[in-house]
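> example.struct
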């Protein structure tokens, strides 16, 4: 019988992190970039929880993961408001086409 260990959590976390980086680097749609950022934050949460469980750190990993979840919710709300404002002004959510914000 196989037991799930720290290595399994780290592999899943690494895969989520890699998918998040891939999503950020290859997508032009701002919503897809935000989804990539959420995947990266979720991979960090998996690491915090796994190291808290297998490293005997008590509840510190869970508390940090809860803080990251709150941070991700605030980031999603603010970022979606910015994306909606960009769509209202430029009629697009492609990151490459919105270069007039510099002016």
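> example.seq
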């Amino acid at each position: 019988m196989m037991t799930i260990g720290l290595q399994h959590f780290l592999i899943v976390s690494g895969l989520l992190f890699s998918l998040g980086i891939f999503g950020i680097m290859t997508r032009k749609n701002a919503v897809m970039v935000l989804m990539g950022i959420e995947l990266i934050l979720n991979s960090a949460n998996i690491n915090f929880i796994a190291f808290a469980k297998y490293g005997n750190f008590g509840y510190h990993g869970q508390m940090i993961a809860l803080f990251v979840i709150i941070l991700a919710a605030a980031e999603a709300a603010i970022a979606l408001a910015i994306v909606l404002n960009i769509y209202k002004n430029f009629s697009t959510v492609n990151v490459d086409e919105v270069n007039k914000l510099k002016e």
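> remarks
The chain has a mean pLDDT of 88.
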